[in-house]
Design a protein that fits this description.
This protein has 85 residues and is of the alpha+beta class. The protein has three helices and three strands; from the N terminus they run H-E-H-H-E-E. InterPro entries: DUF3489.
Amino acid sequence: MTTQTQTKARELTPPREGTKQAKLVAMLSRKSGVTLAKASEALGWLPHTTSATMTGLRKRGYAITRTERSNKDSVYAIQSNEVDT
């Protein structure tokens, strides 16, 4: 017997305007992305807080990628407005 799992498409709910989370989404949405250090500095957060917030955004459906650069910090970016399922 085969069991099929249906997954509903989740709607991407943006953070409330004016919040630090909204600022982070804006930085990640730039074509060039943002480094963890620059995002942390801009938001006034410690790096582990910024990283944890990105994890939370991933869980909400944002497709955040990390690109490693040689001898430099990794760059994080939101790939598209589509939700990961």
